[in-house]
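Teaching note: in complex prediction, the entire set of molecules is handled at once rather than each chain in isolation. The prompt given to students was simply: 'Predict the structure of this complex.' The entities are:
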Amino acid sequence: MTDIASSDHTRQSTSSTPDRRAAPAMHPAQPRSTVAFNDGGTLPQSSTITSPFWKKYRTLIHDEVLPYQWAVMNDDMDPDMPDDPAGNQQDTHNSHAIRNLRIAAGEQTGHHAGFPFQDTDAYKWLEAAAYTLEYRHDPDLKTIADNLVDLIATAQEPDGYLDTLFQIEMPGHRLKRLQQSHELYSMGHYIEAAVAYHHATGNATALRVATDMADYIDSHFGEAPNKIHGADGHPEIEFALTRLYETTGERRYLDLAHYLLNVRGVDPLFYQRQNEEDGIASDPMQSLPLTYCQAAEPIADQATADGHAVRVVYLCAGMARVAALTGDSTLLDACHRFWNDIVNRRMFITGGIGSTQKGESFTYDYDLPNDTMYGETCAAVGMAFFARAMLSIDLDGSYGDVLEKELFNGALAGMSLDGKHFFYVNPLEADPEASRGNPGRAHVLTRRAEWFGCACCPSNIARLIASVNRYLYTVTSRHGRDVIAAHQFISNDTRFPNGVGIAMTSELPWGGHVRFAIDNPEHASFLFAVRIPGWSARRYSLSVDGRRFDGRPERGFVYVPIEGGNATISLDLDMRVSMMRASSRVRADIGKLAVQRGPIVFCAEQCDNDAPLWLYSIGSESETHYEFRPDLLIGLGTVTVSARKRVLDHDSSPLYRMAEPEDGQTPVDAKLVMVPYFAWANRDEGRMQVWQESRS
Amino acid sequence: MTDIASSDHTRQSTSSTPDRRAAPAMHPAQPRSTVAFNDGGTLPQSSTITSPFWKKYRTLIHDEVLPYQWAVMNDDMDPDMPDDPAGNQQDTHNSHAIRNLRIAAGEQTGHHAGFPFQDTDAYKWLEAAAYTLEYRHDPDLKTIADNLVDLIATAQEPDGYLDTLFQIEMPGHRLKRLQQSHELYSMGHYIEAAVAYHHATGNATALRVATDMADYIDSHFGEAPNKIHGADGHPEIEFALTRLYETTGERRYLDLAHYLLNVRGVDPLFYQRQNEEDGIASDPMQSLPLTYCQAAEPIADQATADGHAVRVVYLCAGMARVAALTGDSTLLDACHRFWNDIVNRRMFITGGIGSTQKGESFTYDYDLPNDTMYGETCAAVGMAFFARAMLSIDLDGSYGDVLEKELFNGALAGMSLDGKHFFYVNPLEADPEASRGNPGRAHVLTRRAEWFGCACCPSNIARLIASVNRYLYTVTSRHGRDVIAAHQFISNDTRFPNGVGIAMTSELPWGGHVRFAIDNPEHASFLFAVRIPGWSARRYSLSVDGRRFDGRPERGFVYVPIEGGNATISLDLDMRVSMMRASSRVRADIGKLAVQRGPIVFCAEQCDNDAPLWLYSIGSESETHYEFRPDLLIGLGTVTVSARKRVLDHDSSPLYRMAEPEDGQTPVDAKLVMVPYFAWANRDEGRMQVWQESRS
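The expected output is the structure of the full assembly:
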């Protein structure tokens, strides 16, 4: 927390709590909290995205994603729409989330529908809408969102509790089956949405519902003997409470988050006892090991990142924020331990995490199967949260590298270029025939679905894209000096609390030139830190006001002292195509190469290449040709690699034969056309492959 | 059916039916049936295995496997024996099969335990015991087996029905839920056992129980309106009935088998209607598609070999025998269609079949994943049945090649060299860490289990090994001439019905010299057909009485006319180590090589090689060194391949990096030590790999 972040440029808000039932459906923006809205140290005063690439996506969020998802949540989609035949993530088209809230609010009758956490469809939509309203003036959207806040407020119980499943179906079972209930998870998502919506619009009801929720949780969880000594089966509330603390300044919320982290796994029998006491004989969740929800042992004792990948990274994001805000070194150690385990041993080159469909989980170190993997969109989004939170603790370029990897690859691939189709699973190798024909690969869809029965991913990618302006800078200090660190090269105009304005123009992801025009009207003295991406560490050039700057990177950042009224910093990054290899400990990638250029990982798709993709082999020295093709979908950079192509054996040929030089199988020269991984499956359905055979 | 096969050398037996309850516990061998015991055209009069390799296995069957399995069936195993922690095939130690039969026989009370087909544990044991008694005089074993027959006879209902689950638990539901009941499957296994036991010992009770069963089935299934117009969910009875027909000469049994094949899949709603009428709301079987049990459409319309692999090959064995005995060309076409689909597109190089654990099933053409595959032992055994049956229809070397592949690889790997541990799943690549750590590979055990809850495999491999003397020759005719075809090179002494004696001495699987000393005292005129294995087709030499024989192979067989009183035929096969490759349509094997020598497929094991196996790469021209190591386990041939070994990256190295020539990753020269696939997992638990990276 630096002086910069808490300067008087921070927006103001009252923390008054008006009559919770009387919040108007629409009202003018309110002044913001007097407490610094720090948002993990990463949110400057205002950041406007000017990147054409990201503006397209953010326009999609406003124009397509939010209306589409709103219709889904209101069950307005065509009920006759055909389901996607492939995969076990059913392509349902109605969320029932609003209906559940209406029933809980007493506005209609009926039963709860959907998953226990169905409420979060609405909350994450609200959060995405909040961010969108910060860059797009839309009174209609605001009216809808205000009305949603009012509905949520009406659905909330007088004591602050809100979970429509339990309210509608099992009011006597509140907080009694935390292993599977997702109650705190759901309320956590509401709190995140409320903080964002309050920040965007000043809506006081939104924030008051959140504080009432947090107060309810605080009154039921804690060290006191009469409280619950366990945590939700799905982490999320911890991170949410840090945001609520940062917005309201209410220390109890931070302490509560801290408690919920510390109690996790301390009593490994907690869930079993709860379930027994609540009369749950068997539940699918109970068949999963406690590692699934990181509750087999205290966090301090958890050596590796195990279990459900989304849970792990949501937990890590919460841990990192609590560690940053409390200085708890045990939590910080856990953050570093899990980070290293994930990033160095359990992450796909796209940033995807989760190596198995079973439990949507991590498996073991270096187990990274490209075709049976999971790589859930939500896990990639959560990894971005984790990376951003770590940047606020420790300015290390590797966090920025991973954040960038998620933004341009693993997370972004979760949404189609039309904003209306989504991947839950993000494989590195796909084959429609395999998804249809081999049950072990049925979870891998080869075209994005319109919706999911478990619809966590579509709204998660929406809220990430809508808030990408919050992922660009970290404001911190170094040796007593203020630091503004630019770690993501997404063009933007930003005004910082210390009065500094930065206009960043970046050619990324297609070009390597980045220019920072720094306007420093108050002649603030600070260090401007520029991340040198890992993929460009070998070759880059940095100049300040036209003169080469020779500062060496320290842990991935070059620090440029800024004193004067203006400065122009130019960074040229290495945009050569790179052939990447995995550690030889990764069995799945042995003898294979991946193609990367800048932050973008490329893949081959069947629609660009006329043979099974596994017939092509490339070498580390293969000639490559990069071309930006404005005609291709939204305009995409493509890479063509000089490859060798094996002969496709005739289907009447023997299945096995002696390998002989003279068997007519000499590969021929060929071209392998590759597109950015995030853009795959936006044309004809077909095979896709990130890792190519290496011919060396 | 040639004259040779039905000559008067065939054993005699009465077909009288003594009082079924009065069969003595032990009695002298009875004379055999007057009908030719043809056994699919493959059983000559008597064949004594002299192969040291197979004698070891057959001694194991007698000395270890049968006593061990008998103890398991009688629930005599140590109840405290620890279960194998890996895998979903539980390592249980008590079968309950005998107890179930005793309860059904009224000799004790209690509930049925185990799977619906638990009876078959006892039946397949009995069948293995029968074959064993043909090569090992053991009055104690015979007493046990006779007593078992008596128990089975007592358990049988007066109307011939026998299925302990239904008798004990649901007598009113007989034949009413054929999709999942396994009633005809179980009775089929009894019939096979009875035919074998009757042949071996003359036990008339055994055969009478079988004919009573078949009569019961015949009275309930058939075209008459009051009969059942559907087939068992698991094929087996069809093949069994052909054996009963061949033993008894009762045409009704063949017609019944034919009917059960013809009715299969004709009414796709048959099972659903049965289940509804019998009040079964849901059953795990019902969630599987009808293709799982080859009942989605009539066999004539089934284009590919789909569903549960064991069901497919059991069905095929039955079809092939019925086609041979009836001349039904529709069934024969289906045999050829399924054979080609399996052998040319869906079979692992070891002979393993079944590409997915889900439904233990085939998937789609060329989908042959080495690490997530199934390759059930029973499916390999069933494939041997199918191959043998096809040889009796059509003397084509490819059937002999596949039969040999199963005998020396896919099937044989199912049992440990101590005869007391078994694989249900036979992967081509295994890693204990993966089996423990990745749920998608948990079905792959990396050490053989002591038993299984579903224990179909141990007794299946036992009955195959115990009867391997029935898999050596096919007696047939060609252009009006008698043919004795030698298609398996397993040393043996055999006397044929036409008086011809053959002493085959073969060095296989370790050496390539095979010698046939033919004794023809009656100067019979016939063609002696010798299979030239596919793996030796490019190089072999054949001599007759010391003179090179120049006859070219016709569809894999060389035909040598025999007229005189004696002949000596020498065959020298190509025992060079071969580097094998798969069709380039097989994604999983692209850029990989397998090592084969003679019929034996080799694999690398962790205990012989000091680095992760995927670090080694070999080339099609790599130097190889074969060595027979008498000290290794039962004495094994090993192959050492000159390989290149990649550097194992340090675990602190980056997970992904640019591939560069100068990154210190140049592979070094190394040796890759390989052992026969069938012998893997008999030493320290560790990684195993059949397909090696190719460096070309």
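Point out the following to students. The CA atoms of residues 335 and 429 of chain A lie 30 Å apart. Chain A touches chain B through 64 residues (CB under 8 Å).
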